[in-house]
Amino acid sequence: MKSTCIVAGNWKMNKSNQDGKSFVSEIQKRILDKGNAKVIFCPPFTSLFTIVDTLKSSDFSVGAQNVHNELKGAYTGEISVNMLNSIGVEYAIIGHSDRRHTFGELDDFINKKIITTSKSNVIPIFCIGETLDQRKSGLTGKILKDQIELGLKNIDNINPEKFILAYEPVWAIGTGETASTLQVEEAHLKIKTNLETLFGSKGLDVPIIYGGSVNEKNAESLINIDGVNGFLIGGASLEIDSFCNIVNIVKNF
Ligand code: 13P
Questions:
Q1: Which residues does ligand 1 sit against, CB inside 6 Å?
Q2: What global pTM score does this model have?
Q3: Under 8 Å between Cβ of 222 and 214
Q4: Which among 214, 231, 243 is the best mutation to test ligand 1's pocket, defined by most ligand atoms within 8 Å of the CB?
C-alpha cells in the first residue's frame, strides 16, 4: 500500500456555484469508502465557500486554484492564504502551468507564494513540469531541478505532511497525451532526488502526484508507478463517473 494517495480535481474555470454544489453532493453519495485516498476538490474561487460548506461533515477536502503571497493590501483581484484559511480551505495550487504559461507567473513569484503558504495552515500543491520543446531538447531534468530550487528557495525545512508536489508535464495537460510509464517514473525519481538534496529524508517523504490527461482508463497503470502518490486531474475531474472511477481505482493502492 502507498503511504499517501491523493486524488485532487482541478476544475479550472468550470462549474457554477450551483453546479459545483450538486456535483460534490452527488460524489459524496457515490463515494462512501475512499480507502487510502485523500480526495481534494479545487473549484473556482466563487464556489469555495459553498463547496467547503457542503462537505463540512465529510472528510473530503477543498483547495483553491491559486493564492497571493501577500496577506492583505492593494492587490485587486487577489486572495490571501488567511482568507482561504478563514473559510476552511485546506489546500492551494501554486505554480500551475496555466498560471506560468498563460498568466506569466515566474519562479520568483511562485516562490513567494510558497513561502507565505508554508507558514500558514493552507497546504501548497506546488506544480512543476517541462514543455514539449524542453523535453525534446533533453532539458526535462534541468527544468524540474530549476523549478524546484527556485520555487523552494529560502525554505529550510519541509513538512511532508503539509506539502504536495505535482508533476504536470505541460505537453500532457488537456491534450489527451499522457506521459508514458517510463517518463513519469523517471521524472518522479528526479524530483525525489532533488527534494532529498534540499531537505534530506523529509524530502523523500513529500508526496508527488502526477497530472496530465489522467482518466479512468490510464489511472490504474499510472498509480502503479513507483513514486506516484496520486493525481492532479483536470478534464476527468469534471465528470462524476470518471472522477468516482479514478478514486475507486486509487483507493486500493
Ligand atoms: P488534464 O487532466 O485536463 O490534462 O489537466 C491536468 C491539469 O492541469 C490539472 O491541474
A1: 10, 96, 168, 173-174, 211-214, 232-236
A2: 0.97
A3: yes
A4: 214
Question: 239: domain CATH number?
Answer: 3.20.20.70
Domain limits for position 12: 5-250
Q: Active-site residues: which are they?
A: 96, 168
**CB-side neighbour CA atoms (13 Å) of 72:** 2
Would residue 70 be called left, alpha or beta, if left means φ above 0 and alpha means ψ between -120 and 50 degrees? beta
What's the rounded Cα separation, in Å, for the pair 122 and 120? Answer: 5
Work out how many domains the chain is built from and give that number: 1
Question: CB neighbours (10 Å) of residue 194?
Answer: 21
Instruction: Identify the H or E element spanning 141.
Output: helix 140-151
Each residue of 48-89: pLDDT tens digit?
999 999 999 999 999 999 999 999 999 999 999 999 999 999
Q: Measure the CA–CA gap between 150 and 226, rounded to whole angstroms.
A: 26
CA of 74 to the centre of ligand 1 (A): 31
- What's the half-sphere exposure (Cβ side, CA atoms, 13 Å) at 2? 25
Which of 232, 238, 239, when mutated, tests ligand 1's pocket best, judged by the most ligand atoms within 8 Å of its CB? 232
